[in-house]
Amino acid sequence: MIMPKFMEKLLEGVEVEWETLEDAAELYGGLSGKKKEDFSYGNALYISYKNIFDNIEINFDKLEAVKVSDSENQHEVKYGDILFTGSSETAEEAGMSSSVTTKFKKIKFI
To answer: Which InterPro entries match (predicted)?
Structure first.
């Protein structure tokens, strides 16, 4: 946790306009509508909770597979995105972040 006095010293002499994360970014959840069996065979790749939690930047060598039908509308991760863990077993581990620092072409994974 950043202490208020540290933040004041860090920003000394700098004019700051504070915004909520919701006002500064588009917020959305991870995969939606998935059942356990969707993760046993997959035709698409996704970024796991552990990949976000363990890495300051997403490790694209550690993507996992999930079944996604053509009628589903899942979110696409793009260069520059910042991903957060939405929850955890402890409060200290919630809200961990990882960035997408790799530029890649859209690939259809099978």
So the answer is: Restrct_endonuc_typeI_TRD_sf
Sequential DSSP letters for the chain: ---HHHHHHHTTT-------HHHHS----S--S--GGGGTS-SEEE--HHHHHH-SB--GGG-EEE---TT-------TT-EEE----SSGGGTT-EEE-----------
Residue 63 identity? L
Q: What percent of the chain has pLDDT over 90?
A: 48
Domain boundaries, the chain: 19-30+37-99
Burial (0-12, 13-18, 19+ Cβ within 10 Å), 47: buried
